[in-house]
């Protein structure tokens, strides 16, 4: 019984750690999906750019889209992944 509990705790720990430190982003130009390692833990899993390759500015986006773009910039673009 103790062994089963330890296995379950281990599997949950690995799953939560993976969720916190691994993400998926959609390339803003080619619409490809790629996995990446996050530089800090966050529960957010999927990252995308509402601006993409268009001529929009941050001021043209809604508050939700601005937040998405900030996450994309921090986790993907600033790390050189979406080039």
Tell me about this structure:
- The model has no long low-confidence stretch (mean pLDDT about 90).
- The relative contact order is 0.17.
- The chain is of the alpha+beta class.
- It starts with a helix and ends in an 8-residue tail after the last helix.
- Helix content is about 40%, strand content about 15%.
- The chain has a three-stranded mixed sheet with strand order 2-1-3.
- It has helices at about 1-20, 65-75, and strands at about 20-25, 35, 45.
- It is elongated and about 60 Å long.
- It is built from two helices and three strands; from the N terminus they run αβββα.
- Strand 1 (about 20-25) and strand 2 form a beta hairpin.
Keywords:
alpha+beta; 3 strands; 83 residues
Could you give a quick summary of the protein structure above?
The protein has 83 residues and is of the alpha+beta class. It has helices at 2-21, 63-75, and strands at 22-26, 33-37, 46-47.
Number of strands: 3
Rg is: 17 Å
Give the quaternary arrangement of the chains.
Answer: single chain
For the largest beta-sheet, the strand count, sense and barrel status come to: 3 strands, mixed
Low-pLDDT regions: none
Average pLDDT works out at: 91
* Contiguous helical run count: 2
Largest sheet, order of strands side by side? 2-1-3
Structural class category: alpha+beta
Helix and strand succession?
A: HEEEH
Report the span from N to C terminus: 50 Å
General form? elongated
Q: Beta fraction of the residues? A: 5-15%
Helix content: 25-40%
Architecture blueprint of SSEs:
Blueprint: H1 2-21, E1 22-26, E2 33-37, E3 46-47, H2 63-75
Parallel strand pairs: 1-3
Antiparallel strand pairs: 1-2
């Amino acid at each position: 019984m103790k062994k089963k509990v330890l296995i379950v705790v281990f599997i949950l720990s690995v799953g939560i750690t993976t969720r916190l430190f691994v993400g998926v982003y959609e390339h803003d130009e080619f619409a490809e999906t790629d996995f990446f390692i996050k530089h800090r833990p966050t529960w957010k899993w999927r990252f995308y750019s509402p601006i993409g390759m268009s001529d929009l500015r941050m001021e043209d986006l809604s508050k939700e889209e601005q937040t998405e773009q900030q996450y994309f910039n921090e986790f993907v673009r600033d790390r050189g992944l979406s080039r």
